Task: inverse folding
């Protein structure tokens, strides 16, 4: 079994073989590590390509631009309206496929215009276990996944990110806001705003890892079990309920299973 340092070296060797890359950059843990490593190896043969979208808080876009400026990396930002993608707003089980196909098609076009040979993205070995229709789109478009190629897991990426002094090494995991919707429920700008505001409130209260899942007008809060005691304190609980209702929710609930990735996939058959 390869050690973490051997995997890191394999990643560098693989990126060197690619010669030039456009990194799909969201400012998350994985894509930041991938972008930093690629830039260290390939220099100006690397560009960061970032989608400006209603499915991601403006904070994430701002962090992406700040990182690229601090590292001297060329960044190209393009706008995308996922709600205009045919079928996406109806929120089918392959929603992520529809979105990834659209976004990565545009990233490939941007890469070609900038004489970049390959597009790479930051999925890792942990992403292989859950229902991930987006990976099908990535495969169809021949997008490279260097972190999976090097067999790196999330915990290893965090460890290596810490060694590289990356600000994202302990950043909470994040997924697009559409992942907060139960499959089949219509995705609208108003509901996206409800979720965004609700999660921003939790962040402002010091919660680190959480999700606010939306079921029509019901908010289902997922937080770490270690935070249960904090959230049910009377003052915070009352403020939270009032805020969430002001955002548009009618009922506010706490999921006793706690935070977990892919909880909306628990009701569908995994492929």
Result:
């Amino acid at each position: 079994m390869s050690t973490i340092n051997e995997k890191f070296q394999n990643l560098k060797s693989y990126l060197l073989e690619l010669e030039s890359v456009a990194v799909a950059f969201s400012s998350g843990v994985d894509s930041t590590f991938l972008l930093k490593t690629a830039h260290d190896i390939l220099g100006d043969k690397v560009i960061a390509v970032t989608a400006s979208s209603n499915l991601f808080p403006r904070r994430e876009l701002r962090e992406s631009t700040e990182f690229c400026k601090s590292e001297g990396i060329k960044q190209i930002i393009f706008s995308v309206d996922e709600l205009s993608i045919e079928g996406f707003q109806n929120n089918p089980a392959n929603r992520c496929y529809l979105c990834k196909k659209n976004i990565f098609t545009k990233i490939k076009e941007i890469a070609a215009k900038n004489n970049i040979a390959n597009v790479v993205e930051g999925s890792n070995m942990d992403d292989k276990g859950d229902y991930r229709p987006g990976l099908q789109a990535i495969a169809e478009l021949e997008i490279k996944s260097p972190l999976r190629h090097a067999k790196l897991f999330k915990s290893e990426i965090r460890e290596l990110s810490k060694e590289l002094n990356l600000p994202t090494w302990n950043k909470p995991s994040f997924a697009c806001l559409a992942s907060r919707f139960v499959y089949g429920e219509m995705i609208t700008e108003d509901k996206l705003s409800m979720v965004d505001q609700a999660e921003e409130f939790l962040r402002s209260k010091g919660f680190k890892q959480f999700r606010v899942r939306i079921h029509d007008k019901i908010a289902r809060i997922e937080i770490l079990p270690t935070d249960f005691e904090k959230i049910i304190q009377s003052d915070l609980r009352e403020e939270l309920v009032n805020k969430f209702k002001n955002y548009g929710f009618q009922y506010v609930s706490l999921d006793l299973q706690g935070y977990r990735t892919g909880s909306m996939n628990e009701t569908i058959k995994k492929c």
About this structure: The domain at 177-267 is CATH 3.30.70.2210 (Alpha-Beta Plaits).
